[in-house]
Specification:
Strand content of chain A: 5-15%
Largest interface: A-B, 71 and 84 residues
CATH architecture of the largest domain in chain A: 3-Layer(aba) Sandwich
Radius of gyration of chain A: 19 Å
Oligomer: heterodimer
Number of strands of chain A: 10
Helix content of chain B: 25-40%
Order of helices and strands of chain A: HEHEHEHHHEEEHEEEEHH
CATH topology of the largest domain in chain A: Rossmann fold
Number of domains of chain A: 2
CATH superfamily of the largest domain in chain B: P-loop containing nucleotide triphosphate hydrolases
Shape of chain B: globular
Largest sheet of chain B: 7 strands, antiparallel
Number of strands of chain B: 28
Distance between the termini of chain A: 46 Å
Distance between the termini of chain B: 88 Å
CATH superfamily of the largest domain in chain A: HUPs
Number of domains of chain B: 4
CATH class of the largest domain in chain B: Alpha Beta
Structural class of chain B: alpha/beta
């Protein structure tokens, strides 16, 4: 009898597709959170596969901070169009009004644009299920979060009261007002993501590849001067050959000096590197178990 | 501080030929395993060691780890690998892992997903969860302590969840001077126990997670051990793909893909077997047959799909098929039944209520199911069978389950995907139990349903009436019995054959063995429901007056009756009013604490969300209420 052995990536792909289809079958109004990063790119690609030949039967939601890299905005619009999906962009009106920015407002920036913005957007459209691209290998608190993760009506996560997930069975039932965050790529690692992007030829933001970019160095981080809102305190931007391992708001995302211009070179560099992925992000360094606190408050 | 060199270094290949490296790694297979043991057995240390040795720990994490080890570690100046994997803040403080955490690492040959679960008895449900997806179990034993109660418990769960590969890791060999005799004795003891619970094969390895002996390669400290080290074993254990593909084809339909009128595909994860275009298939439970037309994927049509793949199938015929149904090989269909014997693992703080209806999710179908009183509960430590009327949190037992319709299924032994299920509380939506189907109970072989020649329709037509149940629910003292009495008198005058079942009266006879606990209240209503059903079969109009405080039981009774025959009548009297009347003096007793579990006082009343009729007793006299009910019954 014909048979074949599935690779780890084929197993992961099948699992993610299964999860997405369960949500579409059981939720009333699902949405996919799309942050334009490499994990989002993989998640969107998997969604196209899951529902082919139909387009994914839900919109993409970008909770925008207005401070993303220009290249990210470009790819965002292009990717949504190519997938045949509606793109919803949400900006917290209070943050817009108060001009919240990462230079003057510190952690308030993440709190208002992202945490509050996300809650507002979900409430505004009445989404009852939101796909997110979080992976369990990113951080200790995430290692224990379920694939289907429930949020109370005020968006809180209760790590002590999570539903057991057995076999391929996901319990998606919820009461009115409750919602769920669903993480279809929970079991992927950073290396899996890169290998899959390589194997499937998925388009990602060019910022992941090295190029000469205008940068300044601050608090040990190499920051890219992506537009003229970057306040230069007498500093002169220096052209450096840099790339980014993760993408967020450009004033908060540290670049690494690199010569990796192709995907295999990026993977090569990642494998030989000695620091973990989240190190370039300011958010985790605040205090021990900071991610767990943020998650309980509703951060994705 | 000692920092052992990571052994699984592939840096050379990565640096020299990244394309060759990627090519190798794209063909890796995947193994999911679970580690069983407690912190005391060095479980977290072992996992931390595997992550470290397979180079999954980066320098910044290592630096943090070294600092953490000094602050709160338990290994003195050595690196405390356990700190790497103890996740949530609360757990770190208590020094125990209290949930299921998933860890990832990879070697040249495989990607591994480790389910890390706590070992104590109060976390049995967590271990069951972790075990449900594992292909292999590593059972850890402390070489100084040998086989303990928890070893037996873990092994029993591993066997119960059908994990095929078992590794007995005898840990902390460094603390018994790598003594072969100690190791051999533990292995012999374990073999005897394993035989007794049906674990036929296992591999025993002497290790030290802390020192690294026999983890990635043979240790010089155990020259007497000729077997493989742990990681090479994990890399070479046969994965389940081949076994699953050799089974007959089964795919639960997850979603019907219908982008336009020209395309109708059935999407799902293949549970077992293989499928090709042209294969004859059958859709269950309907039993309709067709042939596979195409296997549609984003990357083009496939000529073969196998167990473990998520695909979309189209059929050559337009037959009815929707979510919850199962597409199977036409020549070897699944059984279809509505009564099963199953093992249940209870996972909720609220104990099992036999007779209550729960949602049962099995494959992609969700049906309503009631669990009967357990046949027995299993003592997870000794595997003895105990008599039990319910199952509490973490209890494992065997019980019969009845579903509200026939469903296709397999025994759990044959298929995890088609024989494993969860039970969901209909009110809280919590996952309350995991279950494993043993076999179907064929009603015909067990309780024979006596076919009678005179049908219920015949009974009803002799009485010139349509049978019905007028179900009055409401607080004690709301006026149910008074109204029910008037209704019956009026119907009798209209020449209708009725029967009044009154809560107090039934408790004098049929239900005199029942008290007022939640479980007894459920059983009380179940029995009354069954009696009412028999009476409607006899053609009667049944009037009942029961507090019946729980929504799910009222719904259960409704589901027993023919559609339209059950009328839920909410006798709505506010608590203050009922209490001020207090005809039987019960509220006073409840308030004084003399009477426990009294509805409205210290036991809940769940208001009907959509009753067929609501009687507001503050606005209507009992006469008017009775007329309203009769108008609703005979318009």
């Amino acid at each position: 009898m014909a048979s074949k052995t599935l690779t780890h990536l084929q197993h992961l792909e099948a699992e993610s597709i299964h999860i997405m289809r369960e949500v579409v079958a059981e939720a009333e109004n699902p949405v996919m959170l799309y942050s334009v990063g490499k994990d989002s790119a993989v998640m969107l690609h998997l969604a196209k596969k899951a529902f082919y030949p139909a387009p994914p039967p839900f919109p993409l939601l970008h909770v925008d901070t207005t401070w993303k890299f220009q290249d990210m905005y470009k790819l965002r619009d292009k990717a949504a169009k190519e997938a045949g999906m509606e793109l919803l962009v949400y900006q917290n009106p209070e943050a817009v009004e108060r001009g919240i920015n990462p230079f003057d407002h510190g952690s308030l920036h993440t709190d208002m644009w992202k945490t509050e913005g996300l809650k507002q957007a979900l409430d505004k459209y009445g989404f009852d299920a939101a796909f997110g691209g979080a992976r369990r290998d990113e951080e200790k608190a995430r290692a224990k979060e379920r694939v289907f993760s429930f949020r109370s009506a005020n968006h809180r996560w209760d790590p002590k009261n999570q539903r057991p997930e057995l076999w391929h069975l996901y319990n998606a039932r919820k009461s009115k007002g409750e919602s769920m965050r669903v993480f279809p790529i929970s079991n992927w690692t950073e290396l899996d993501i890169w290998q899959y992007i390589h194997l499937e030829g998925i388009e990602i933001v060019p910022l992941y590849f090295s190029a000469p970019r205008p940068t300044v160095e601050r608090d040990g981080l190499i920051l890219m001067v992506d537009d003229d809102r970057f306040p230069l305190n007498g500093e002169e931007p220096v052209m450096r050959s840099v790339r980014f391992r993760t993408l967020g708001c450009y004033p908060l995302t540290g670049a690494v000096e690199s010569e990796a211009k192709t995907l295999p070179e990026v993977i090569q560099e990642m494998l030989l590197t000695t620091t973990s992925e989240r190190q370039g992000r300011a958010i985790d360094h605040d205090q021990a178990a900071s991610m767990e606190k943020k998650k309980q408050e509703g951060y994705f | 501080m000692t920092t052992p060199d990571p052994i699984y270094k592939t840096d050379a290949l990565i640096a020299e030929n990244i394309d060759a490296y990627l090519e190798t790694h794209q063909h890796k297979t995947m193994l999911r395993f679970i580690t069983c043991g407690s912190v005391d057995d060095g479980k977290s240390t072992l996992i931390g060691r595997l992550l470290y040795d397979s180079k999954m720990i980066f320098e910044d994490q290592l630096a943090a780890l070294e600092a953490d080890s000094k602050r709160s570690g338990t290994q003195g100046e050595e690196i405390d690998f356990a700190l790497l994997v103890d996740g949530l803040a609360a757990e770190r403080e208590q020094g125990i892992t209290i949930d299921v955490a998933y860890r990832f690492f990879a070697t040249e040959k495989r990607k591994f997903i480790v389910a890390d679960t706590p070992g104590h008895e109060q976390y049995t449900r967590n271990m069951v969860t972790g075990a449900s997806t594992a292909d292999l179990a590593v059972i850890l034993i402390d070489a100084r302590k040998g086989i303990l109660t928890q070893t037996r418990r873990h092994s029993y769960i591993v066997k119960l969840l059908g994990i095929r590969h078992v590794v007995l890791a005898v840990n902390k060999m460094d603390l018994v001077d790598y003594n072969q005799a100690e190791f051999d004795k533990i292995v012999a003891d374990y073999r005897e126990f394993a035989d007794s619970i049906g674990i036929e094969e296992f591999t025993a390895i002497p290790i030290s997670g802390f020192k690294g002996d026999n983890i990635t390669g043979p240790s010089d400290n155990t020259p007497w051990y000729e077997g493989t080290a742990l990681l090479p074993l994990l890399e070479t254990v046969e994965v389940e793909d081949a076994l699953e593909q050799a089974e007959p084809f089964r795919m639960p339909v997850q979603w019907v893909n219908r982008p336009n009128l020209d395309f109708r595909g059935f999407s799902g994860l293949i549970a077992s077997g293989t499928v090709k275009p042209g294969d004859e298939v059958r859709v269950l439970p309907s039993g309709k047959t067709s042939k596979i037309a195409r296997i549609v994927t984003f990357d083009g049509d496939q000529d073969l799909a196998v167990a473990g793949e998520s695909v979309t199938l189209t059929l050559t015929d337009e037959i009815d098929c929707s979510r919850g149904q199962v597409i199977v090989a036409a020549q070897s269909p699944l059984e279809v039944a509505d009564q099963f014997e199953s093992t249940l693992v209870w996972m909720d703080e609220h104990a099992l209520l036999p007779g209550r209806a729960y949602w049962m999710k099995i494959g992609t179908q969700t049906v309503s199911a009631t669990v009967h009183e357990p046949k027995y509960e299993v003592n997870v430590n000794t595997q003895e069978h105990l008599a039990s009327k319910t199952l509490d949190l973490n209890a494992i037992g065997v019980a019969n389950i009845t579903t509200d319709r026939e469903i296709p299924f397999a025994s759990y032994e044959d298929s995890r995907d088609l024989g494993g299920f969860i039970l969901i509380d209909k009110i809280t939506n919590q996952t309350v139990a995991a279950g494993m189907v043993h076999f179907a109970l064929r009603r015909a072989q067990n309780i024979h349903w006596q076919a009678t020649d005179i049908s219920r329709e015949h009974h009803a037509s002799m009485k010139h009436q349509k049978p019905a149940v007028l179900w009055l629910t409401g607080l004690s003292g709301s006026g149910k019995s008074t109204i029910a009495n008037i209704v019956e008198k009026k119907l009798a005058r209209m020449n209708r054959h009725t029967f009044l079942l009154d809560g107090d009266n039934v408790r004098h006879g049929l239900n005199k063995d029942l008290g007022f606990t939640e479980a007894d209240r459920v059983e009380n209503i179940r029995r009354v429901g069954e009696v009412a059903r028999l009476m409607t079969d006899a053609g009667l109009i049944v009037i009942t007056a029961f507090i019946s405080p729980f929504r799910s039981e009222r719904n259960m009774v409704r589901s027993m009756m023919q559609p339209g025959e059950f009328l839920e009548i909410f006798v709505d009297t506010p608590l203050e009013v009922a209490e001020s009347r207090d005809v039987k003096g019960l509220y006073a007793k409840a308030r004084s604490g003399e009477l426990k579990n009294f509805t409205g006082i210290d036991s809940p009343y769940e208001y009907p969300e959509a009753p067929d009729l609501r009687i507001d007793t503050t606005k209507m006299t009992p006469e008017e209420a009775a007329d309203a009910i009769i108008d609703r019954l005979i318009p």
